[in-house]
């Protein structure tokens, strides 16, 4: 049996044992999974469900978020553990010998994070009696001794990834402009993507403004400052509010946005709408059906409706094992005029990153049936009227898709995807909304490119790319491949929506 089959078999047997309440067997299986494949997102997540202490859970979840920063379920569980920690103790150690600052460095990714995962794995896989500060200190020494080796391996991994993409990509430093909607005129030129040097601002001829969230992630939960950026001419950003959040979208005009706001009093997120000048904040609080943890809103541009993810107030289920967990996130649509809310998904899968089609009749969303043998994030399109689901991508765990957004004419979907063997190297891809045809690369580089947003006229694409210490927003012309840089500040910046 191949190593890959060994990992999948161990994972299945571990899940079965966990569901049966046999935590010891489940833990043994999941530890073997992450020993064989330290980048196995499901293995780390399920291991978190059977380890005994909050410190061990926190380490496992941190590794999940290193592998996939968009794993909202792991993020929610980490937030819950952090809340519990704040309420019960002031101790700054996350586990013996590992400080909160060190764990934050893990969440930041990079070569040091890779080795620290290995070190932490060594710390949690030894017997309970030997999990102590000595092993953690030894792991830290291992980080220092092997950093240069891991950096070299990271380069090799990135090069290997370039030859394994299922969508027949070019070399790792080239970009291709595919055939898109009629307004997106392709060219045959392949333009090398630049490296870490700063690029010019988009010219004044690039129209519109971006709803953005950005700054330093001081809370380590993805909550940043909501901002408005004029795209063309190097304009200065305008802060919307002092409150922090993410997933900022325009709400019917360029004068109002909707976003996932972080509430410091409850250590949790909720959805609010607010004017871009910071006035008239309105919480989105559907009363029926009973739901909580409302996040990731996207507002319809043709009607006063919003789609979002949330968790039903039904308590833990068989799918959540015996872990201090919540049920998978479901997909909801609320009519803001009547406050009537409908549930679009009723299966056991988790849904994330919903986006309305231009006519608001469909929703593109990432679906992951996490607890089944067919797990893995894929993009589906759901008909709002009848709930019909159309698969768009079907590679399961081969690639991790995220943040789908619609092309202006509603015929294509643009999204970010990273291969399983390089989870922190997303590329930006376009595919037909009905799943037909072959996905095509829009942006590919050795850097992590994510959160694509197309301009309403179909001429430009904004996206975030980590070409240095932080993510910054870049804008490219889909006609000739010209690339500009919109942000260059000391923090992460993500584009949420484009108004024109």
Structural overview:
The structure is a single chain. By secondary structure, this protein is an alpha+beta fold. It folds into 2 domains: 3-160, Tetratricopeptide repeat domain (Serine Threonine Protein Phosphatase 5, Tetratricopeptide repeat); 167-499, Neuraminidase (6 Propeller), CATH 2.120.10.30. The protein has helices spanning 3-19, 23-36, 41-50, 54-67, 72-88, 100-107, 111-125, 133-162, and strands at residues 93-95, 98-99, 209-215, 225-230, 238-239, 245-253, 256-263, 268-275, 282-283, 291-299, 305-312, 330-335, 341-343, 350-356, 362-368, 378-383, 389-391, 399-406, 412-419, 427-432, 440-443, 448-454, 460-466, 472-477, 483-485, 492-499. The strands form 7 sheets. Strands 5-4-3-26 form a 4-stranded antiparallel β-sheet, with no helix packed on it. The chain has a 4-stranded antiparallel β-sheet with strand order 6-7-8-9. A hairpin with a 4-residue loop joins strand 7 and strand 8. The protein starts with a helix and ends with a strand. The model is unreliable at 90-196 and 316-324 (pLDDT under 50).
